[in-house]
Every structure is written in C-alpha cells, then in structure tokens.
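Table 4 source record.
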Amino acid sequence: MTTIAIETLSQTGATDEAPLLASFARQPILTREGMLCGYEIKVRAPAVPVDEADQAEASHEAHPDALPGRPPTPAQRVARAVVRGLLQSDVRSALTGHPAYVDVSREMLLDDSILQLPPERFMLELSQALEVDDALIARVVQLHTRRYRFVLDEVTQPNESFAKLLPYVDVVKIDVARAPRALLPKLASVLKSAGKLLLGCGIDAQADFEAMHGLGFDRFQGYFFARGQSSATRRVSAPRHALLNLLQLLAGDPTVAQLEAELKLNPVLVMHLMKLANSSGLAVGHKVTTLRDAINATGTDRIARWTQLLLYADGRKVALEDDPLLQLAATRARFMELAIERLPEAGRDEADAAFLTGVFSFVDAVFGGSLESTLNVLTLSRPIQAAILRREGVLGGVLSTVEALERGEWERAAALCEHLPPLTVEEAAQMGLAAGAWAGVADRSAQGLERIED
C-alpha cells in the first residue's frame, strides 16, 4: 500500500498542473493449493481539484476538435497518475515477484500511458460496467497483440458486456458472494470448457473456498486462509507446544543456558536458528557451528520475532514469499510497528507492543479454538489483548486501519486515521506497501526473518 506523487504529463510534455496523488493497497490471490500467486491492487484514485476540473471541461467544450497536444482531460490525468503510480518501486517491491491484477478504466485503456506497464507483471481487469463499443474492443485487441492479459472482473452473471469481452480475456473473476449459487456450477463448467481460468473473489470463509474448489476454480481471492477453521488444511513447521513454550520463555528474561536447553528439545527450531545465525549480517566473520554461538549471534529479540512468525509458516516446503498466512502476519506486524512510530510519544516499548498486536491478531488461524484462550496462553499484555479482541485503544485503532487497507476500504481507513493524528491515510497506504515489501524479502537476516524451509 503506497501513495505516489505524480507529475502529470500531456502528450506533448509537462504541464503546470499540480501533481496528483494515487494510493494503492494489495489483496492476496491464492492457488488451489493455498499458495500466493498474485495480488489484486486496490486503487484509491486521486481527485482532480474542482477548479482545475471545471477549467479543463470548459476548454474541452470550447475546443472539442483541438489537436492531440491539448491539455489532458481530468479523467486522463487521473488515468496517467494511476499508471505512473503503479510503476513506482514501492508497488513493485510489495508484489514480491507476483503479478498484479489491476482494475483499468476506459481512460486508462485508451491512453497510451498504459503501454508503460510491463505486460508480464500486470493483469488488466475489465469491468462489466465498461462501455463496450468498437473503439474499446479494438484497443483490447491491440493491447492483446502486445501480450497484455485481461481479466473479466467481478462477474455475477452473464450480460451483454460479458459476451462481448469474453473472447479476449484469460481469466474470469466471479464474485462468489453476489453470484446466484444455483448458477455457479453451470457457469464454471462452460467457462472451463472455453479454456478460461476461474478466479473466485470475496472468499472469506473456508466453506466457500471448498465449494469453489470443488467446482474447479483455479484462483481464490479473500481472507479465508486467515480464519480459524482453515487451520486443518495447514501444518505448522514445528510442534505448536514447542513454539508456545519457547515464546513463553522468551517473554521473560531467559539466560543463554535456558534458551539452549529449550531449543535442544526441538530439532526443527535449531535448524532454523542455525540458518538464521549464518545468514548475511549476523555471523561476524566466521561460520556459526554451535547452538550457543547461534543464540549469541542472533540475540533474543530476533529469536523472539522469528519464533512469532514461525507460528504461521506452512509445514510444507514453501518459500516465504508464497506463504499467504505468514505474509499476512509479517505485513500486519511491520505495518503496526511503522504506524505506531509515526504517532506522538511512541518509543521502543510501544513499537514492540504494536508488532506483537499485528503478529498475533489472528493466531487462532493456526491453533484453532478460541482466540481469547490462545492469547491468554501467550501471556500477552492487557492492552494488546484488548486491541486484538475488541479493537480498543491506539493499538486497536491501528489494527483496524491495516484491516481496512487490506480490503481496500479507503473511506473507512481515512476515517480511522482521523483518530490517529498525525497519521494520514496516504501515509498509512505507503507504510502498508513498505510492510509488504519487508515481509516478502526472503533474506531478512538484519531484522530476524528468513526463508523458512523444512
């Protein structure tokens, strides 16, 4: 999630108009096996100032047949701002190598600025609400020859636009929450026979995932994987009691001897710790070969964060950047840490509490059962528990903000930021993508997060 200042360009060069701001949030897209394979980019389009929009409209009405070099319309300015924003390094980093699915307006499609988007990194989503005329079809065909791929977005049932656009799309995204359930089996069968990939969006419950999986859907968008009932489909990479015991020990002030004794009971944890200690930046000029040296090289703070995130790691041999639950936990935790540091009088203790709030905000997805009982086992402080269970206090407000950003609920995110001055929704969006990039880097030795492989 990020905010980019865009210097809008006309077709002939720079203009004197004020730069526009576009914000972006990301939403995970998973494979049938439950692994990350892409991100939907949720766009908060910039607003053109009213006076500028009025002037541009008046100019266009006065000179409707002006040469192509005339100043861009407000809609073109917005389209170019979004395209330029998508090209920024913060967005690219937060995608962690996965393709981006992005909704495109008619103005974006018809404007040549869209050609700046690398076709191998972007899937262009076409809404059924678009005005589908000969000009738009011709443009889609032209872009298709340049290897751009299209998605028919948020289908609920076939209509005229659906029929016109279907031949040109590779993926059909079906809004599972709004589509008639009785229609889904036949619709899925017909589209699969036509060679289309099926993407179900709005999948927030395990039952919906299982139903769509049974119908042959290929991709899934939603947060079903972060719900407690999905824990049966995952294997944690170390026994849960071992992780909990280690976390409880780390909550105190353990000696190296105590940590060494606890870790020796858990070979998987030892393996990960040795990897972490020997990764770049931690081993000081020599290879770490003993557990005691690994503990000293890594430090208890890094071990604690590594263990917290390891709770969410899939037991299969899954790369960090492809594990949706671990990615979500790490991104939330890092966002909360960044956001709390922006607030007045925030110190190291507040930042640590914010990280813990984010990382344990859906720990029931791993352990099942009551979230409250799991938090009690972890002996988290009352403010952290109140933030997670009831969204209370400043920590609760920041947690609600990151949840709104995850869903692209821009108005709610902006309203929440008003209660967290001086944090703005634009800054929050920027922190969100920075957090996503942090979570997605496999070699995270300096901050205590590494590629987790069994």
